[in-house]
Design a protein that fits this description.
This protein is an alpha+beta fold. The protein has two helices and four strands. Strand 3, helix 1 and strand 4 form a beta-alpha-beta unit.
């Protein structure tokens, strides 16, 4: 079974989702101008986690996967992680993406 690729408007405004409570994460998205990206870079992911050494690379990979599913580029993702599970991280990322798309509805 193939899951349809979600469609969303490009990132037009900053957004946030989540909290800094234990076992959660706070995700913020910010649109970037092409000039703000390094050569060859499509998205920038910054991770600050209490489990950075063990899971920092996985957290970044998850963020890149979610952004790729939405087809997003030219975006800065900041993740402040307090031990969130992968499913929580994905939910927070998706909510932030939907909020940043310029729609009037809340995700």
């Amino acid at each position: 079974m193939r899951i349809a690729k979600p469609t969303v408007q490009p990132i037009v405004k900053p957004s946030m989702a989540g909290s800094l409570e234990s076992n959660d994460c706070l995700v913020s998205l910010h649109p970037l101008a092409k000039e703000e990206l390094r050569e060859g870079e499509e998205v920038r992911v910054e991770v600050d986690s209490i489990v950075q050494i063990q899971f920092g690379a996985q957290i970044e990979a998850t963020a890149r996967d979610v952004l790729a599913r939405f087809g997003l580029t030219r975006v800065l993702v900041r993740i402040q992680d307090k031990g969130a599970l992968d499913c929580t991280l994905r939910a927070r990322l998706e909510a932030a993406v939907l909020r940043a798309g310029g729609d009037d509805h809340e995700a």
